[in-house]
Amino acid sequence: TQLLEQSPQFLSIQEGENLTVYCNSSSVFSSLQWYRQEPGEGPVLLVTVVTGGEVKKLKRLTFQFGDARKDSSLHITAAQTGDTGLYLCAADNQGGKLIFGQGTELSVKP
Amino acid sequence: GAVVSQHPSRVICKSGTSVKIECRSLDFQATTMFWYRQFPKQSLMLMATSNEGSKATYEQGVEKDKFLINHASLTLSTLTVTSAHPEDSSFYICSATIPPEETQYFGPGTRLLVL
Fold first, then answer.
1. Cβ-contact B65, B82 below 8 angstroms
2. Inter-chain contact B105–A97, Cβ cutoff 8 Å?
3. Taking CB atoms and an 8 Å cutoff, what residues of chain B touch A42?
4. How crowded is the C-beta side of B83, counted as CA atoms within 13 Å?
C-alpha cells in the first residue's frame, strides 16, 4: 500500500514567520499535488509537480519535488493569517485515484 | 477552471433514513467521478470511483449496499447513504476529472449530520 506521510500535522505560528510542510513516501510517483482546504469547503488545487527536482513558486509559496520523486515540500514565506487552513499533499495511486497525506493544519496568528 | 458543484451543502436527517447527495460537473463532461469522506481534523479517504454508464468501484471496507452510487450522465453522479446512522455523519466530497488529464477538481462538499 502506498502511503504519504505528511508532517507536521499541526502548526501554529505568528504572522510573518516562515514554515515548511513535508510530504514523504517510500514510493515513486509520476506527479504530486498540493491542495489547500478551508473549513466546510472542498480542497483547492495549489500546484502539481511532475519532474524530479522541480521547484514551483506561487507568490509566497514554494513547492519542491524530490529528485527521486518520492517526497515533496511546501515552504511558505512570511505567513499571513489568510494562509490558515488545511494543507494536503496527494499523489496518483493507480487508475487516476488519489491518495492523500494526513494533512497539515496550519494556524497563522496575527 | 473546471467547476464541480454538490447538493445539498448541508443535510440533517434522522437515523434510519436515506440521504442522496448530488455531484455535478458544471462546465465539462466527466466520465469519472470520485467520492471521498472526511472526518473532522482528518484527511480525505476515497470511498469509490464512479464511472458513467457502469458500476462504481468501491474501496476496501466501504459497503456498496450502504453507499449507493449512480453515475447517470456525464455531468451527474449521486451518492445515496442508505439507512444512515450517526457514525455516517461526515463531510462527503466528490471530484471529477477531465479526460485525458488526471487532475481532479473537487466539489465544495456536503456536511451530513445523522441524529
1. yes
2. no
3. 4, 6, 93, 95, 106-109
4. 4
Residues from chain A contacting residue B44 (CB–CB below 8 Å)? 43, 88, 100
Q: A82 in helix, strand or coil?
A: helix
Which chain A residues touch B42 with a CB distance below 8 Å? 102-103
Sheet holding B4-7, edge to edge: B4-7, B19-25, B76-81, B67-73
Grid cell digits, residue B82? 442508505
Total length of chain B: 115
Residue type, B44: L
Q: Are the beta carbons of A42 and B106 separated by less than 8 Å?
A: yes
The average pLDDT across A77-105 equals 92
Q: What is the mean pLDDT of each run of 10 residues along chain B (115 residues)?
A: 91 97 92 93 92 90 94 92 96 88 88 97
Going from the C-alpha of B10 to that of each of A39, A75, B7, B13, B34, the distances in angstroms are: 13, 34, 8, 10, 19
Q: Measured between CA atoms, how close is A34 to chain B, in angstroms?
A: 11
C-alpha cell belonging to residue A17:
514567520
Smallest CA-to-CA distance from B110 within B4, B6, B3 is with B6
Coil, strand or helix: which one is A26?
A: coil
Q: Which residues lie below 8 Å from residue B15, measured CB to CB, with a gap of 6+?
A: B84, B85, B86, B114, B115
